[in-house]
Amino acid sequence: DNTFDIVKIRQDFPLLNKSIKGRPLIYLDNAATTQKPQIVIDATNQFYSNSNANVHRGAHTLSDDATELFEKARSSVQGFINAKHSHEIIWTKGTTEAINMIASGLAQSHLKPGDEILISAMEHHANIVPWQIAALRSGAKLMVVPINEKGELIFSTFKKLLNKKTAIVAMTHVSNALGTINQVKEIVRFAKQVNAITVIDGAQAVAHCPVDVQQLDCDFYAFSGHKLFGPTGIGVLYGKEDRLEQLPPFQMGGEMIKSVTFEQATWNELPYKFEAGTPNIAGAVGLAAAIDYLNSIDRVGAMLHEKRLMNYCLALAQSMDDIHLYGTAENKTAIFSFLMGDSHPSDVGTLLNQQGVAVRTGHHCTMPLMNELGISGTVRASFSLYNTEEEVAMLFAALTKVKTFL
Ligand code: PMP
């Protein structure tokens, strides 16, 4: 743990020095997006300053250089999640696009009337709505596994809902609204017993837990670069080779074809079949730099640090009598989702912002979950490896002040 140096870590992120309303920024909105270390900013700038060209198509050195960087970035992602092949890594603009690719493709190629798609009650809209549409198009049915009062998946009901009509199990690795870490390996193991295709939404997991897709044995895994200290507009769809081979392409155009006549076209090989058009090359290069960054720090130390922040946060929350916490699973990431007395979350958020504390308020793109909880939204402080215990203390000092206003 002692090789995790929080002072040094904070120096790597230039934006953390910013002031908001004359006070030092306390950035606790990391589940929405993370700040970027200097090496990510530099890698993106370097790409545009030194290597910018289109990929895979030039007959010139610069294009070859850009292609090499782009494909090297793909290999970095492959290593990061331990995929078997680099062509199992598809660039997308984020988790949302990745899940849309899978849902839209499976609606065409796999789902039939009467099939069931199993999701959980804690899904983000990005892992609900694409499946609703896929169900509508194919005649399949969307089924929902409920959660208990701690915000954990009720595993016994999950097992009961699995049956031979279950075609797809699509679940989040970590809940963005509650922080619950799902037992995805077990979810996949049981789903496979009924031959369901497994899709894991890893948006909230990759920055906090080690992810090994071969160990999880899932068919698909999706995540976004921007929640992993990388740029916005770049994300990843991982798919097992045979599943990707069977999946129809999502968008049509340049780069994704093998041959085209005016009558028809044939598809390019993986991964290019899913990468129509000029991709976000600088984004991929930036994401690879973010992975380099994570590989350069003590990640186990970072995880312990986040755990410490969460425990401190929970202790301070208990000392205030009117904080109601949502998401009390033992196995959770450092997400503190709460309501204070009967105050409206957005009022709390606004008053925190005036004190330099950045949180998110509202339904967090999980409206069905909020309905289950019987609330319209929460205040969410979400921590990252660069947050400090002093910042946790300052959040509670600010909350104490908020109470005097409300
Ligand atoms: N799933 C979860 C669990 C998320 O937290 C998010 C981002 N809030 C998404 C999906 C969508 O990610 P993106 O907006 O980067 O596509």
UniProtKB/TrEMBL annotation:
Its EC number is 2.8.1.7. It comes from the Bacteria. NCBIfam families: sufS. GO terms for biological process: cysteine metabolic process. Belongs to the class-V pyridoxal-phosphate-dependent aminotransferase family. Csd subfamily. It comes from Shewanella psychromarinicola. This is Cysteine desulfurase. The keyword Ubl conjugation does not apply. Its cofactor is pyridoxal 5'-phosphate. It catalyses: (sulfur carrier)-H + L-cysteine = (sulfur carrier)-SH + L-alanine. Residues 26-394 form the Aminotransferase class V domain. Keywords: Pyridoxal phosphate, Transferase. Catalyzes the removal of elemental sulfur and selenium atoms from L-cysteine, L-cystine, L-selenocysteine, and L-selenocystine to produce L-alanine. One of its GO terms (molecular function) is cysteine desulfurase activity. Pfam families: Aminotran_5 (PF00266). InterPro entries: Aminotrans_V_dom, Aminotrans_V_PyrdxlP_BS, Cys_dSase_SufS, Cysteine_dSase, PyrdxlP-dep_Trfase, PyrdxlP-dep_Trfase_major, PyrdxlP-dep_Trfase_small.
